[in-house]
Amino acid sequence: MTEPLVMSMSPRAGGNSDHAAALFARSLVRPSRPVFLRDHRMEPCTGCGCCAEDGQCRIGADGAEELFSRLDHASGLVLTAPVYFYHLPSQAKAWIDRSQSRYMARQSGLRAPGAERLAYVVLVAGRTRGENLFTGIMPTLRYFLQIFDYRIEKALFLRGLDGADDFSRDRAAENAVRDLAGCSGW
């Protein structure tokens, strides 16, 4: 294991999720640099079922496996993401869907569970209200991260941050992210 991986899953460069990821990374005892999902080409799962045989994805060389490997080797994980229509952006969901091969490898005993690690989640929504605004995302992240032996320790749900600089102008949101980073002990 190395250090925690901080990843923004936003397709918009320099937006609120990126600012939240950067602030979280800077707030760690040993500051790090965030990774951006959008910097990696991601093909969607085609549902071919080939991974059911041996746990190997046949799609080939895109960024999915490289990022899965980074998850494998990190000591902890921070994911930040915007909320699009009550769920994750399409590239993030495509990446998550690609973990089906890892799930199949575990189900068939080709990949043994490892030691549990902690994950922190920051979700950023433009909407100011909506009872179920984050409800659909959390089970997806929880089951996705279980494949990689992560347990969501805490999640932060931020509302009303739509413009690219809204997070940077919201002291309460910034303090909440700093507090979350402090809780990690990393």
Overall description:
The structure is a single chain. This protein has helices at 16-26, 51-54, 64-73, 90-98, 100-107, 137-147, 171-184; strands spanning 5-8, 35-36, 77-82, 117-124, 150-158. It contains seven helices and five strands, in the order E-H-E-H-H-E-H-H-E-H-E-H. The model has no long low-confidence stretch (mean pLDDT 96). Helix 1 (16-26) crosses helix 7. Strands 2-1-3-4-5 form a five-stranded parallel beta sheet, sandwiched between helices. The chain is 36% helix and 16% strand. It holds the Pfam family FMN_red. InterPro entries: Flavoprotein-like_sf, FMN-dep_NADH:Q_OxRdtase_AzoR1, FMN_Rdtase-like_dom.
State the main characteristics.
alpha/beta, globular, 5-stranded parallel beta sheet, 186 residues
State the share of residues found in helices, binned by percent: 25-40%
Order of helices and strands: EHEHHEHHEHEH
Strand order of the largest sheet: 2-1-3-4-5
Count the beta strands: 5
Apparent shape: globular
Distance, first to last CA: 13 Å
Q: Note the quaternary state here.
A: single chain
Spans of at least 5 consecutive residues with low confidence: none
**Mean of pLDDT:** 96
Individual helix count: 7
